Amino acid sequence: MDERLHKHGRFFDVWSRFYRSNPFGQELRRIQRLAIERLRLVPGQVVLDLGCGPGDGAARIAELGAIAIGLDYSAGMLDSARREPRLTNRLLRGDAGRLPFRDGAFDKLVCTNSFHHYPDHFKALCEMRRVLKPGGLLVLVDPRRDHLFGWGAIDLVENAVFGLEEVRIFSVTQWCQLLGEAGFSDYRVDRGRIWSPVEWAEAFIEARA
């Protein structure tokens, strides 16, 4: 297994211990709710929460009547997620660059604030497109490089302080290029609302497979 995955997995194992108990984690959970709203879920749809963390997003998806599957590489995050009854037998440990699902397995896919940790960003994006049905919707939220807070939080804190040199974020322009190269047929990249410092630093992506 790629040692880079282990390193980032250990980072999230530690983060899982206090994710829900600090203001930054609470803000990330609020942003995750915004991403789920963009999915425009229909009951019965099969949805992958990629980088599901402690399961809050997947539980919300299930609450809205969809079939939620959560995947994460962090054992600590998955231990937290398994406490959610609605996710029983719906959680897997795996690598975003090699998703353990057949082509076209999902109607929709959501990924919030974990993409920058994937060792091979382009491969992970191609995998997301592969497991979506034709016309399936991807909603992805991640810090953007063309914002000082996003750049500082990732390049200065996660990279320099925590030694996660593989982390990488992208500008709105770079996201448009990546989505096209990965084969998404239609996409848009929005900035978060300016009144929230964390949200304003995020790119909100909607793309059709």
What's the topology here?
Blueprint: H1 3-15, H2 23-39, E1 46-50, H3 56-63, E2 67-72, H4 75-81, E3 91-93, E4 106-112, H5 121-131, E5 132-143, H6 148-161, H7 172-181, E6 186-191, H8 197-200, E7 202-208
Parallel strand pairs: 1-2, 1-4, 2-3, 4-5
Antiparallel strand pairs: 5-7, 6-7
Computed CA radius of gyration, to the nearest angstrom: 16 Å
Biggest sheet features: 7 strands, mixed
Number of helix segments?
Answer: 8
* Share of helical residues: 40-55%
Secondary-structure element string: HHEHEHEEHEHHEHE
Output the strand order for the largest sheet. Answer: 3-2-1-4-5-7-6
Secondary-structure-derived class: alpha/beta
Descriptive notes:
Strands 3-2-1-4-5-7-6 form a seven-stranded mixed sheet, sandwiched between helices. By secondary structure, it is of the alpha/beta class. It has helices at 3-15, 23-39, 56-63, 75-81, 121-131, 148-161, 172-181, 197-200; strands at residues 46-50, 67-72, 91-93, 106-112, 132-143, 186-191, 202-208.
